[in-house]
Amino acid sequence: MAEVTVKQLADVVGVPEDRLLQQMKDAGLSHSSSADMVTEQERQALLSHLKRSHGESGSSEAPRRITLSRKTTSTLKVDGSGRKKAVNVEVRKKRTYVKRDEPTAEEKAEQEAKAAKEQQLKAQAKAETEAKSAAEREAAAEARKKAGEERAKTEEEVRKQADENRVKVEQAQVAAEKGPSKKESGDKKEGGKRKSASKKSESPRTEKAAKPGRGVRRGQGFDPSFNESGSRRRGGKRTKLKAPAQAAQHSFARPTEPTVHEVEIPETITVAELAKRMSVKAAEVIKVMFKMGAAATINQVIDQDTATLVVEEMGHKVSLASQLNIEEQVLEGISYEGELVPRAPVVTVMGHVDHGKTSLLDYIRNTKVTDGESGGITQHIGAYHVETGHGMISFLDTPGHAAFTAMRARGAKATDIVILVVAADDGVMPQTEEAVQHSKAAGVPLVVAINKIDKETADPDRVKNELAAKEVVPEEWGGDVQFIEVSAKTGQGIDALLDAVLLQSEILELQSVPSAPGMGVVVESRLDKGRGPVATLLVQNGTVRQGDIVLAGQNYGRIRALLDENGRPVETAGPSIPVEILGLDGTPNAGDEFAVVETDKKAREVALFRQGKYREVKLARQQAAKLDNVFANIGSGQASILNVILKTDVRGSLEALISALADLSTDEVKVVVVSSGVGGISETDVNLAMASNAVIFGFNVRADTPAKALVEKEGLDMRYYSVIYDIIDDVKQALSGMLAPELRENILGIAEVREVFRSPKFGQVAGCMVTEGLVHRSKKVRVLRDNVVVHEGELDSLRRFKDNVAEVRNGMECGIGVKNYDVKVGDQIEVFEVTEVARQL
Q1: 724 and 753: one domain?
Q2: Angle at 549 between CA 546 and CA 554, to 5 degrees
Q3: Which whole number is the average pLDDT over 306-310?
Q4: Residue 71 falls within a domain, yes or no?
Q5: How far is CA 63 from the centre of its chain?
Q6: How far apart are CA 492 and CA 484, in angstroms?
Q7: How far is the CA of 820 from the CAs of 544, 807, 838, in angstroms?
Q8: Which of 225, 437, 570, 828 has its CA 20 to 30 A from that of 332?
Q9: Residue 136, Cβ neighbours under 10 Å: how many?
Q10: Is residue 522 part of a domain?
Q11: How many folded domains does the chain comprise?
Q12: Please, what's the b/e burial string for 189-207 (b: 16 or more CB within 10 A of its CB; e: otherwise)?
């Protein structure tokens, strides 16, 4: 496109003519009508102006804070007074993201020292508490012992007193039997009046003696009608006395202070379980949550933060417990210590369709795998180990890159080396580029096998040139990738390829402990009608034996049978050996890690825990791939990089967009185009986005049906655009949140110290006159002496006469108390605030 009119350029760019003319006018161009011609130099000048207008920054500070504002407008149709009318509703949303400062090495060391000191203090306090408790227990035991001795002594004294009283009564009875005294006979002569009175007077004394211990304490006589058990003899019958008042009281004592429990809170907990741990009714917990603004039901699951707030609100102590302890205790209890020995490399064969991947592997294995495949295309994942004259090598033959990506998306690194098969007559094809991108994203070294070298149309130099353009540089050209020319048909170069693979494995220094329990990764799994779940495992460390209990992802079970790649039963499988197992309770996902555990109970606990956590992990992965949340994980090491997968309709748009996105990168934030290409968005692109936490941009292209289904299932962020500026604006808006905001200091007011007073209640108080601005009580202050800052801190008090005030204006007198500092007459108190200003790219 040499020269075009303004109208044609507006149609190509997709903006209105008047807006384009205004932009050209701002750029200093002299176009005023839509029929004016635009040269190539003028278009470049317009593009440069637009880039400058969007703003560029080269600052090197870390991202701190961003505020995103969004506005959406919708129209509602309502009926009113017999007619319809439309109402426009505008919704504005604002979200602020703040980055935590990354601690330095010194701060980390201080934090570790502080944590160690706190732990030491806790241990010391615990030891003191235990010692104090032991001392209290000993004191309580001593007190009980003394109380028992005093009680025994008192009972002995009561018993002696009772014996003395009994002797006195018996002596009185004996004296009465011998004969009444003169006084007593005189009493009888008075008609029995004195005798009856005597009986009346003795009756209350007798009843008082019936109460245990009361007559003894007051020195009253002992009544023989009472026996030792406290019952009275009347007419040959025994009547039991009533229990004393103290014994009639209830033994339960109401606590004087509320009981404080230490509640252990896992990552998630139900309301009912939380109430049980606090020893309260669930209705009380629901009531507290309702007052806090969070309505909940008894069976609702709440997170750890919410439960912590509820427990603290109800006056109990919080003890945070991570449920990952279940998994950590089981897996960390497995010992992988032992003698390290070299292990065989695990190699994945990748490349374009019909470039000879399976035929190459077939020649190495000396079998005909290709003959058994439908149409000569690999339909499943094959795992084989080959004993060569150069050593053992395990191969993974994949039907494309989806499984490779799915395994990497789950964090599994099953491959040590990738053999990239490229046909010498076809050169680099689209799937070849994808294989290069996948291997680079996984950090796996490449060995390129240029296949079909025996054909007349073979051109190895063309393959090297095309791969060198993809940053895969041969060793003879100064790179680090080995290029081997092979022929799967004649066997040419096969030995050299195996030597290259083993040389690369020696560089990697692959080692394992064969004597340890087996662990590794799940390559594939399927459900067999006759045998049940069948899983293909690749052992990476240790040894797997028949009868072991295996935990694989969310599934577990005891190994009932071990089969090699040929279907023959084996007893054990060591490092780098692929093997099929029977006995799991389900089919684990490709890429799930497996481990041999001790007991079936532990395996079940971890499997159930992982099943419960699967949904949370899935949601977290969905949020990580959102463009809106690209800087939500600031400080995690990936916050300054935005991974993008870009698909466009034509090559020109692709190159322009890659260049524009690369220009947005700075020293602080970077845009990395993980994959790019021309054509629709495929399922492979979505798998790669899921593995690399990337956002998918489609420029004038759409996703096919399988890709759409996978995007909806995984919750990835896929966006369609038709204007280049819209992509740039969205990416700039996301990257702006990664830039650290600028800190600006504003001086709010200055007060001059005229006099200093001493108050017994408030300490030192400075009598000041506000000479500039406003003096705020809640802001930070500096004390200036001879225009030199001598102190920086806060205000302790701010008063006008006897009243506390929040601020004092210019020209007014006030009393100021500076916290932890003594001012002098003539000092200036400067009030200031620090504000953060968001930066833009």
Answers
A1: no
A2: 130
A3: 89
A4: no
A5: 21
A6: 10
A7: 68, 20, 34
A8: 570
A9: 10
A10: no
A11: 5
A12: eeeeeeeeeeeeeeeeebe
Q: Closest Cα to residue 419, out of 402, 409, 404, 430? A: 404
Residue 535 inside a domain? The answer is no
Q: Is the per-residue pLDDT at 187 higher than 80? A: no
Mean pLDDT across the stretch 566-579? 86
Question: Where are any strands of DSSP class E within 703-839?
Answer: 718-721, 742-759, 763-773, 775-776, 780-784, 789-800, 803-804, 807-808, 813-818, 828-837
Residue 275: its H or E element: helix 271-278
Q: The tokens of 836 are what? A: 């953060």
408 and 431 inside one domain: yes
Decide: 16 and 6 in contact? Cβ < 8 Å. no
Can you read off the two tokens belonging to residue 496? 């050299």
Sequential DSSP letters for 657-681: HHHHHHHT--SS-EEEEEEEEES-B
**Residue 699 sits in a domain of what CATH number?**
3.40.50.10050
Q: What is the pLDDT of residues 611-645, one digit of tens each?
A: 766 655 555 555 554 555 554 444 444 446 788 89
Beta-carbon neighbour count of residue 223 at 10 Å? 18
Which residues span the domain enclosing 284?
Answer: 262-321
Question: How buried is residue 394: exposed, middle or buried, by Cβ count under 10 Å (0-12/13-18/19+)?
Answer: buried
Are 376 and 491 members of one domain?
yes
State the pLDDT confidence band at 1, using cuts at 50, 70 and 90: low
Same domain, 313 and 357: no
- The 10s digit of each residue's pLDDT in 700-723 is 888 888 888 888 888 888 888 888
Residue 61 class from Cβ within 10 Å (0-12 exposed, 13-18 middle, 19+ buried)? middle
Which residues are bridge partners to 418 per DSSP? 348, 446
The residue from 509, 530, 548 where one domain ends is 509
Q: Is 316 in the same domain as 431? A: no
Task: Output the six-digit token pair for 603.
Answer: 């395996």
Structure tokens at 750: 């200055």
- Tokens standing for 48? 């440069």
In terms of Cα–Cα distance, which of 594, 564, 590 is closest to 579? 564
Task: Give the lowest-confidence range in 16-20, 617-621, 788-792.
Answer: 617-621
Please give the angle made by the CA atoms of 426, 432 and 438, to the nearest 5 degrees.
175
3-state secondary structure of 277: helix
Placement of tokens 């044609």 in the chain: 8
Cα–Cα distance between 122 and 116 in angstroms, integer? 10
Model pTM score: 0.42
- Per DSSP, helices labelled H in 383-527 are 402-409, 430-442, 460-469, 494-508
